[in-house]
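As a warm-up, study this chain.
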Amino acid sequence: MSASQKEPTDDGGTAATTKSETNRLVARVAVFTRYFILAPTIGLAVAAVVMTGVAVVDVVKLTGEALSAQVEISKLVVGFIEVADVFLLAVVLYIMSVGLYELFIDDNLPLPAWLVIHNLEDLKEKLVGVVIVVLAVFFLGRVIESQEPIEVLYLGGGISLVIAALSYFSSRVLEGGKKE
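Now compare it with the structure written out below.
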């Protein structure tokens, strides 16, 4: 039977009509269900705001301690490095929130070019970059406050393996997918 011929069905319609109606229904469901992504998008945005607020409070506390000379310089450095880590985590949460919104809800947000995300690979690439920086900042904080050199060595080895894997993933998998 050719594509132009229609097979009769029991209800007097045609198989092509039924298939077309099914396709339209599936399309409507897909369009509607993409709005379920608003829940994680809003959740991630709220988490980013909360983490930013927590970090700002920590900056104020650390600044007060520094001005009153109630803290050693090494503790102050570690404190500010940890605050930087929290701020970076807030940035990761924000990028994920905006990225999910762009991917599922509205791809035409007025954003800076570095934050424009058109596909899942773009989001993964941005996250890999920020995660590497978060790991590096975390490691720096541990190096400064650690009393055990072997602990620093193990932590550095573990983090370097994760960074190497993420770098490989980014260069081979993500960049390879863009070329195709």
